[in-house]
Backbone:
């Protein structure tokens, strides 16, 4: 099985590649080669699988054709620019997040002109496809009313993925990832950054700022779950999806207060004491418009599994990023 | 007020242009000029308004820029290829129905580089954005799960219209038209053709084929209502729309049996006797997946008004197409 990963240099992409090389198989089939692409050259995978590293911008003419020229059986398309950047740079957002995906779909469709070609395409969508009005728990049939250009671009790609799949041009599965926590690495300026920061920094003995009230409730999955979702989507029996190829992934609904309680249980009061409350009305207003929880019944019935407690999410961070122990 | 109508040669486009020239105003503002565009040159409007006729394909480079070069205050974008053709010719459907609309939106956005420009754009979407599973009555927050490429293209354009409006590039209103009945002209091969045919042909003393059961229920508005919807959308206070710029139009839910009863009341048993039942399982299956009725509460609250009986729809056809009387 030949695999192409687009967006292989990102946080989730790198963890996915590590999981692929470690397992050597996907859904019981042996992996014969890996092509790893991103706008910057992805790091070489560990292990012994034959691999190709590609630095390329999917939104440029000819790139998609080149990436699929060896007809990969399985394609993970994770490449996107994030919400804040897509809002700040309108043209870049549409070019990367919409045109890039459409060029990939078109390259796949045109590739079957001479010989049938219908690869599995696993696409990462986002809960940003949902906007006001939002119920407390978002069901699987909730309408898409995105309130950002990023969410609009993801919603459009979902529609394209379903239509190209319905027409038999690709075998697509779109997965809407929860907010990933605990994100490894340095603090960033994303409005959602504090959800990870108030866990990650205290575990590293550093102070973390909390800009919102402890009653704020949001929807989470660990990086480990994100990778598991991608691998499960890669091996899914898509005949069970019908015409609707996109799924809200299961996750954990938790308030900031519940996050902090979990931190206390896992790392003690010294860690909790490192959280400093500095209310930021701008961040509070942005976050107030975000989804709080999903039903995710379809995905759960299809075998996708997320976390059931924030303690578990914190322990996964300690195991996967901190060598299994906190100082 | 300068007005541009794209798709001016179509059935609804011609009726819209006739209404504009007759009124000479839109929302109380005098019309100063009309630009009428379509892939074939539209017929000249009646009346004395200054006008320009353009034969052009919106999906070709530079056409959108040219069409808006005199900065129309109000743009009606009705141009599209229909459902059957978009399904038969995948590339043409995406080129005309998606790329054409996106090129128009981009031309408008880029036109404001030097001087602010944010015209009202009235876009005709379709109830084809809705697909399985469908409730008996579709509410204003029902999800979009189109089952055709045409419906996918319209759903994508709705998302673009909302995002470009939210960003302040255009002042968009998208209206999802019910199935238009009674369509004037000759029978066509559209799966929906019989809904009009079983009224139009008998009124003209000709036989009409009915391929489905009389219990089939669908959602209708007259051509006169379609024009009234467009004009109402052109003058709407869009601050009342919020972030959701697209509306399901009000209509009349009626079964085929109710259509036939109305025909009997308006034109007598001789007309009804001209309907010949020739069941067509293919058409029956297509139609079974179509919407039956809408709530359309938002549109009604915003002042959009449709018909309340099929008798009314038939009388409008007699008044507008048959000179007010049947033979």
Residues:
């Amino acid at each position: 099985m030949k695999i192409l990963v687009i967006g292989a240099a990102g946080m989730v992409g790198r963890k996915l590649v590590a999981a692929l090389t470690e397992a050597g198989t996907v859904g019981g089939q042996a992996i014969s080669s890996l092509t790893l692409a991103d706008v910057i050259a992805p790091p070489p995978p560990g292990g012994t699988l034959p691999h190709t590293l590609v630095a390329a911008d999917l939104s440029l003419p000819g790139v998609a054709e080149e990436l699929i020229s060896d007809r990969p059986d399985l394609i993970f398309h994770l490449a996107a620019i994030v919400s804040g950047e897509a809002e700040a740079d309108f043209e870049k957002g549409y070019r990367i997040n919409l045109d890039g995906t459409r060029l990939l779909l078109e390259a796949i469709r045109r590739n079957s002109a001479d010989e049938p070609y219908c690869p599995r395409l696993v696409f990462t969508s986002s809960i940003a496809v949902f906007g006001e009005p939002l119920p407390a728990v978002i069901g699987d049939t909730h309408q898409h009313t995105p309130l950002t250009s990023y969410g609009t671009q993801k919603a459009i790609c979902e529609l394209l993925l379903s239509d190209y799949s319905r027409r038999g041009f690709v075998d697509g599965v779109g997965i809407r990832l929860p907010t990933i926590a605990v994100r490894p690495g340095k603090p960033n300026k994303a409005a959602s950054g504090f959800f990870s920061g108030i866990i990650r920094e205290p575990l590293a003995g550093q102070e973390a700022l909390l800009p919102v009230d402890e009653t704020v409730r949001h929807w989470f999955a660990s990086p480990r779950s994100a990778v598991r979702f991608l691998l499960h989507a890669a091996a899914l029996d898509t005949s069970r999806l019908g015409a609707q190829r996109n799924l809200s992934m299961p996750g954990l609904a938790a308030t900031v207060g519940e996050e902090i309680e979990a931190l206390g249980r896992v790392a003690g009061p010294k860690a909790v004491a490192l959280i400093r409350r500095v209310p930021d009305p701008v961040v509070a207003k942005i976050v107030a418009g975000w989804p709080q929880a999903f039903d995710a019944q379809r995905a759960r019935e299809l075998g996708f599994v997320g976390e059931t407690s924030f303690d578990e999410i914190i322990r996964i961070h300690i195991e996967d990023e901190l060598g299994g122990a906190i100082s």
